[in-house]
Structure prediction request, 247 residues.
Amino acid sequence: MKIDFTNKTVIVTGGAGGIGAAIVQLFQECNAQIIATGTNTSDLESLNQESKGKKTDYIHLDFTSNESIQKFLGHIDKRDRIDVLINNAGVNKIDSIKDVSEGDWDWINNVNLRAPFLLTRAVSKIMHNQGYGRMVNIASIFGVVSKAKRAVYSATKWGLVGFTKAVALDLAPYNILVNTVSPGFVDTELTRRILGEKEIEKLLNTIPKKRLADAKEIAKTVIFLSSDHNTYITGQNIIVDGGFTSA
Ligand SMILES: NC(=O)c1ccc[n+]([C@@H]2O[C@H](COP(=O)([O-])OP(=O)(O)OC[C@H]3O[C@@H](n4cnc5c(N)ncnc54)[C@H](OP(=O)(O)O)[C@@H]3O)[C@@H](O)[C@H]2O)c1
Prediction:
């Protein structure tokens, strides 16, 4: 089975690092035209240099800035087609509910939930007009189960799973399929920094596959759901967690 995105335009938010970068790389291998977003202007400049010939534009987009969001939405509006939207950008701060500030609540909600809403609304109009689209929202196992000190993160990811289901129902008649992919513990710099080596050792015993996920394993699932091979899956939450939430 060959997956090909020739002549398809794909948006990946948070595409400059971590899971987003793995998603961008697979789309590049499948010949997509890619708009990848990031917040660090100098990183984006380097990525634009490095990716010459790979049909990828790295564009600045900071979901904590309304000005940045409006600029990006203006950019999207000028595009003839958007075939695929991947809402991947996300943030987390680990805190007991006693200590969560309203500022952190707003920040995490703005990036994890309000941003996918704004992009989905804008892109759904374009997809509706062209009668085709695929959207994948990156949630988390903490949108299915939870853990202490994840109240805000969990609220946004459960919200994203519910949002996805409702949007899928709105858009199914127009050949637009909308799903969530929920990663378990992925071997990224962020995971290693937040959890530390000792915590990861303990964690491995609770994962039936006895290892962290590789970001590519998340990306492969995203690519399938975004492709023409997905013709009937919509409103679903595909959990890629090595069996963690089944145990
Ligand atoms: N790693 C895991 O184990 C894991 C597990 C379950 C779910 N997830 C989810 O997977 C997604 C990707 O996470 P990751 O692990 O790859 O972490 P990451 O490396 O920290 O990536 C997060 C991405 O979000 C972007 N981002 C952060 N703040 C932003 C803002 N204000 N505006 C726009 N973009 C912003 C970042 O862009 P810049 O780098 O350019 O700032 C970055 O590309 C997230 O939604 C996360 O919740 C991760």
About this structure: Residues 14, 16-20, 38-40, 61-64, 88-92, 111, 138, 140, 183, 185-186, 188, 190-191 surround NAP (CB under 6 Å). The chain has a mean pLDDT of 97. The domain at 9-184+219-240 is CATH 3.40.50.720 (Rossmann fold). The chain is about 45% helix and 15% strand.
